[in-house]
Each structure stands twice: as C-alpha cells, then as structure tokens.
DNA sequence: TGTCGGACGCTACG
DNA sequence: CGTAGCGTCC
C-alpha cells in the first residue's frame, strides 16, 4: 500500500503492525525509476522513496520447506505487507510535512524495535536515512538498529568475488531459479506493477538472506558476520555522513607551487637528456634511458615489467641508475612531486564539496577482510612530509625550502582536535602470536621503551642495540613485511635495493633465527592444500583454488596469498573489533558526544 | 578528427 | 599481497 492514502486509524494500525513485525526487507527507489536492486547502480539519481516488505512471520514458521520459490510476494504470505514510503517532497505543503513526519515515525520505529532490517547495500540505506531524516533520526538510533546485508554475507563466504549487484547475487544463489524479468522504466509501466516487481525482488532478497545465513552458520562465519561486519555497516554509514573540512586556499596555493617546481624539473630533465620528451611517460623515459643513453649496459640487470617484459623505470631501478647519469635523480624528484600534486592536492580538490570531503567506504572490496576507501582514498594519503624547493623571483632571498605534509590539509572543527590511534606493529605481533616463535615473542615482553625494529635488528644480527644503524633497522622492518607479504628473494632484493643473492641470504638467516616463523608459513600452506582455504584469527575465510594447481606460478602465488591472508586478515579482524568496541562505547557514553572518523588502521 | 575505455606502469597506504 | 588513483598509449 502507498501510505499517503491512509487515514488516521489506518496509520495507527500500520505503526502497530510495524512494532510487531518480525523482519523488514527494504530497497530504495530512485528518481529515474531504478532501485537498489537494479544492476545499474546509479548514485547520481536521488532517492524518491523506500519500499519496505514487512514480514509478520519468519520464514521457518510459515514455510519450512522452500522447494517452490515464491512467484508473487503476496501469494506466499498473506500477512506480509508491502509499503511504499515517499521520501521526496516538492512543496512545503502542510500535508507534505505531516507525511514526512509519519514516514520518519515509521523508519524510526523500524530501527528502534530491533527487528532485522534486510537490505542490499544497507550502508547506503542508512546513510540516506541520516541525510533525509537527520533531525528525526540521529546516528545513535542508527547505531541501535539491527541491519543485515546479504551482499556482505556473500562476500564473507567468498571474499574473492565482490557480488556487483543484486541480480548477480540471485543468479549465484538461485541458479536453478528463473531468470529475472527486467523492469523497463522507459515504457509506460504501471506504477503498481513496478512496486509489485520490487516486492517480488524483496521476497527473493529475503530468501537469499535466509540461505546465506544458513551457509554462514555451516561455514563457521556467523560470529564474524554478527559481531564484526554487521555492526560495521552502521559505523561506516555514520562515518560517511560526517564531513571533514579541508583547507582549500592552502590546497590551491600548494598546487601552484608544485606546478612551478614540476616545470623546472621538466626543463632540467630535457636538458640532461638532450631532447624533449614527456617526463610522465614511462615508455618515453625508457627510450631515453636505455635506447639513447644505454644506461643498462653500465650496471647489473634491469628488472623487467610484468606484462610487456621491457626494462622497468620504477623507483628501485632509478635508484640504482642515479650515479651513472643526472637524469634518474631528476625523474625521481619529478615523480614524487607529481604524485603529491596530482593525487593529494588536485585530486583532493576534485573530491571537495562545499569545502568538505567525505570518503566512501567499501566493506566488500578486498579479499583480505580490510576496508577500502575512495573519493578520496583517505587510507592512501601520504604520511611523510616532502620538501619542495620554491624559487622566489621577488626581492629578497632567491629560494626557500618548504615542506608539504598532505595530512595537514585536513582541519578539525573549532574546539575539537583529531585523535589518531593505531595498533603498534600489529602484523608483527600477529606473526609472533601465530607462529609462537619464542624469539619473536620476547620482543614484545620487553617494555616498549626501545624501537621494536631496532631491537629486532639487534636480535637478528646478534649485535648490541646501540650499534644498530638506521640502515639495519630499515632492513629488519622490510624483511618482516616481506615475510608477512610472502615476498620471494627477487621482490625482497628490489625492496631492499640489494642483489638477489644477498636478499636470499637475508631470508635464510632470518628463517634460521626465527625458525617457528618458517614453520608457520609451511603449516599454513599445508593446511590450505588440505582444506582448500585459509582462516584468520576470528574465522574469516579465503578459498584459494590455485593452491593445488599444476602451474608453478599460479600455485606459488596462492601460497603467498595464503600466508598473507592469515596475517593481513587477522589484522583486519582486530582493527574491526576495535572500531566496533570504540563505537559502542561512544554510543552509550553520555559524555563522549564527538563523532568518529575512523580510518582502517587509524582513528582520527 | 576527437573521445572513450581497456591495458599497462608506477607508487602512496597498510 | 592487495587496495586506490594518477598517468600514458592504443
């Protein structure tokens, strides 16, 4: 029913029904006639309304066997109600206002009665509620709700596939079932037919969720689903609602300075190369470096690019070439400055809306269980400040050195301050815990007065920690992450800037010292071979079909992925636990009113 | 002739 | 290892 046509008594009745409902299945409908359940997820179109299927009875009570899928939603459950909540309001009529208030009441009740709200892309639904009914529904109400998202369930079962749309989800889980009729919004479809179709889809969505819930329980993923991923939906919705202020003037000024520096560097590059070429083009640079200047004949073998198998011009290569010619050094600086300008300055400017930015978070975008962010990718914003030579053509000093720290472009609200909190060396701790390596564990039993990688370097190489140089510390750090990421000797050599032989010796000596780490990686691969998947601390899973592949390259890749997943996936588990716990305590606290912006591993 | 999109390379983050 | 995002080339 369309609730706009309801009388006072009927409205009261509907609210009562909602209070006693057992489940809600919802989908947003957009201006262009599409819904959250259409494959074309157009975020440009604004929300027109919300369709809600109100379940009065749960599936297991009314139809224990689901051998025959429901072809029409109303034929299955007579007691279920399909309601349409119009959320757009054109004029400021009094009637419109009372309608808005009533819709707000219904939505409030749906969140408040702690009955599962099932939604494909539930985060978007909650974010819309906060945007449209922000005055009636606060983020604390959202925090109290119980939302279920079948997309996240499907991703937990197999994190390698992201389930791009509702239709794909249905196809995947009900292949036996009929193909869905597409709703043509261009032709003059009757409004009722459209909503009936959405109702049909909602019924399928409900059935899919029930099946997925069963699968999750069978696979031991239910706890991760309920305690980590579901609460996270609400956290991300609140995070996306919160905006961060950005210093636009500073950004524009920096963009100009960087642009000037880039022009200078380009000139220098052309000069020492003896010709004009596109500095940003790796293929043109490769021509200059290896075909014209023939620098590869003057040093050891140059690593090849992955696909085309031509000489790489990566940072690692350029670092080795910098004593042979002035060009590599210029290119290195050019790239560093260009990266900052294009991604962190100009890129950030394009993400800005009215002086603010807010990232979009993807909960199902990674195979490891971590979150990803875009527009902007706030997780990828450079940590370290960069020095830029700024030439002053005006009177006084000729040039000055300014430092740019991309993170300082974000400004906190007046009277507030950003709080950053992150786990200390979480991957290394997890590696120590999972391997139970006594030497590695010892590292963490000592008070945290000394730097962990310095201590590790001293332990590994058997030298007193006072004699550990910065280079040794850096080497130890990269070594650890190489082990965590499952890198081979070639990759480690590139990372450390040494020869492959030397890297291989480092791996040997490291594994010799921390024997249990080696045992751990062997064990992990072995278990993956037997079961076909690996498991993180909290029970998150990653199936790896290639673990028993004939092809060497595919198999060893799967082996690295297996080791990587256990460490990286467990780190993701712990970070998500922290996010959920912090959010919960902020919600229940009467004094902590500050809203949170939580990065994957840092909390501002 | 112009513009779009996929393939590829590079490099921040963790 | 695996995200996002900038760039070129075809």
From TrEMBL:
<dbReference type="InterPro" id="IPR036397">
    <property type="entry name" value="RNaseH_sf"/>
</dbReference>
<dbReference type="GO" id="GO:0006261">
    <property type="term" value="P:DNA-templated DNA replication"/>
</dbReference>
<dbReference type="InterPro" id="IPR001098">
    <property type="entry name" value="DNA-dir_DNA_pol_A_palm_dom"/>
</dbReference>
<protein>
    <recommendedName>
        <fullName>DNA-directed DNA polymerase</fullName>
        <ecNumber>2.7.7.7</ecNumber>
    </recommendedName>
</protein>
<dbReference type="Pfam" id="PF18049">
    <property type="entry name" value="DNA_pol_P_Exo"/>
</dbReference>
<keyword id="KW-0808">Transferase</keyword>
<feature type="domain" description="DNA-directed DNA polymerase family A palm">
    <location>
        <begin position="403"/>
        <end position="600"/>
    </location>
</feature>
<dbReference type="InterPro" id="IPR043502">
    <property type="entry name" value="DNA/RNA_pol_sf"/>
</dbReference>
<dbReference type="GO" id="GO:0006302">
    <property type="term" value="P:double-strand break repair"/>
</dbReference>
<keyword id="KW-0235">DNA replication</keyword>
<keyword id="KW-0238">DNA-binding</keyword>
<dbReference type="InterPro" id="IPR040940">
    <property type="entry name" value="DNA_pol_P_Exo"/>
</dbReference>
<comment type="similarity">
    <text>Belongs to the DNA polymerase type-A family.</text>
</comment>
<keyword id="KW-0239">DNA-directed DNA polymerase</keyword>
<keyword id="KW-0548">Nucleotidyltransferase</keyword>
<dbReference type="GO" id="GO:0003887">
    <property type="term" value="F:DNA-directed DNA polymerase activity"/>
</dbReference>
<keyword id="KW-0227">DNA damage</keyword>
<dbReference type="GO" id="GO:0003677">
    <property type="term" value="F:DNA binding"/>
</dbReference>
<dbReference type="InterPro" id="IPR002298">
    <property type="entry name" value="DNA_polymerase_A"/>
</dbReference>
<dbReference type="Pfam" id="PF00476">
    <property type="entry name" value="DNA_pol_A"/>
</dbReference>
<keyword id="KW-0234">DNA repair</keyword>
């Amino acid at each position: 029913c369309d609730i706009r046509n309801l009388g006072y008594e009927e409205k009261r009745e509907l609210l009562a029904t909602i209070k006693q409902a057992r489940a809600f299945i919802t989908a947003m409908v957009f201006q262009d006639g599409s819904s959250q359940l259409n494959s074309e997820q157009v975020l440009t179109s604004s929300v027109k309304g919300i369709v809600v299927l109100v379940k009065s009875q749960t599936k297991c009570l009314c139809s224990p066997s689901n051998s025959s899928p429901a072809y029409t939603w109303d034929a299955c459950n007579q007691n279920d109600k399909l309601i349409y909540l119009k959320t757009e309001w054109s004029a400021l009529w009094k009637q419109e206002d009372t309608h808005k208030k009533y819709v707000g009441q219904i939505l409030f009740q749906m969140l408040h009665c702690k009955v599962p709200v099932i939604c494909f892309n539930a985060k978007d639904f909650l974010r819309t509620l906060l945007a449209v009914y922000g005055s009636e529904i606060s983020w604390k109400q959202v925090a109290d709700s119980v939302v279920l998202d079948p997309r996240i369930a499907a991703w937990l079962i197999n994190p390698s596939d992201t389930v791009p749309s509702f239709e794909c989800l249905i196809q995947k889980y009900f292949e036996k079932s009929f193909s869905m009729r597409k709703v043509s919004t261009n032709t003059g479809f009757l409004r009722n037919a459209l909503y009936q179709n959405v109702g049909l889809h909602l019924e399928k969505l409900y059935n899919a969720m029930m099946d997925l819930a069963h699968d999750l329980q069978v696979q031991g993923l239910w706890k991760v689903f309920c305690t980590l991923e579901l609460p996270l939906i609400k956290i991300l919705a609140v995070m996306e609602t919160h905006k961060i202020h950005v210093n636009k003037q500073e950004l524009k000024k920096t963009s100009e300075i960087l642009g000037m520096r880039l022009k200078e560097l380009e000139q220098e590059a052309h000069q020492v190369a003896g010709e004009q070429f596109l500095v940003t083009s790796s293929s043109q640079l490769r021509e200059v470096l290896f075909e014209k200047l023939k620098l590869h004949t003057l040093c050891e073998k140059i690593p090849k690019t992955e696909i085309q198998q031509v000489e790489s011009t990566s940072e690692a290569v350029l670092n080795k070439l910098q004593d042979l010619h002035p060009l590599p050094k210029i290119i290195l600086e050019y790239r560093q400055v260009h990266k900052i300008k294009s991604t962190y300055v100009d890129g950030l400017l394009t993400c800005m809306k009215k002086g603010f930015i807010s990232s979009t978070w993807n909960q199902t975008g990674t195979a490891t269980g971590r979150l990803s962010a875009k527009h902007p990718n706030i997780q990828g914003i450079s940590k370290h400040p960069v020095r830029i030579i700024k030439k002053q053509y005006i009177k006084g000093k000729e040039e000055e050195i300014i430092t740019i720290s991309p993170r300082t472009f974000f400004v906190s609200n007046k009277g507030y301050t950003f709080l950053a909190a992150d786990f200390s060396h979480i991957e290394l701790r997890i590696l120590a815990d999972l391997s139970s390596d006594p030497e590695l564990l010892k590292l963490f039993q000592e008070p945290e007065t000394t730097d962990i990688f310095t201590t590790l370097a001293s332990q590994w190489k058997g030298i007193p920690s006072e004699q550990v140089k910065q280079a040794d510390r850096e080497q130890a750090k990269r070594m650890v992450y190489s082990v965590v990421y499952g890198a081979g000797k070639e990759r480690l050599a590139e990372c450390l800037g040494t020869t492959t032989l030397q890297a291989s010796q480092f791996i040997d000596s490291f594994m010799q010292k921390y024997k249990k780490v080696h045992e751990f990686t062997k064990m992990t691969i072995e278990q993956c071979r037997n079961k076909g998947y690996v498991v993180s601390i909290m029970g998150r899973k990653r199936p790896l079909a290639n673990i028993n592949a004939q092809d060497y390259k595919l198999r060893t890749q799967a082996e690295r992925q297996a080791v990587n997943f256990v460490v990286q996936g467990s780190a993701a588990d712990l970070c998500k636990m922290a996010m959920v716990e912090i959010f919960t305590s902020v919600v229940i606290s009467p004094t902590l009113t500050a809203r949170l912006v939580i990065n994957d591993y840092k909390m501002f």
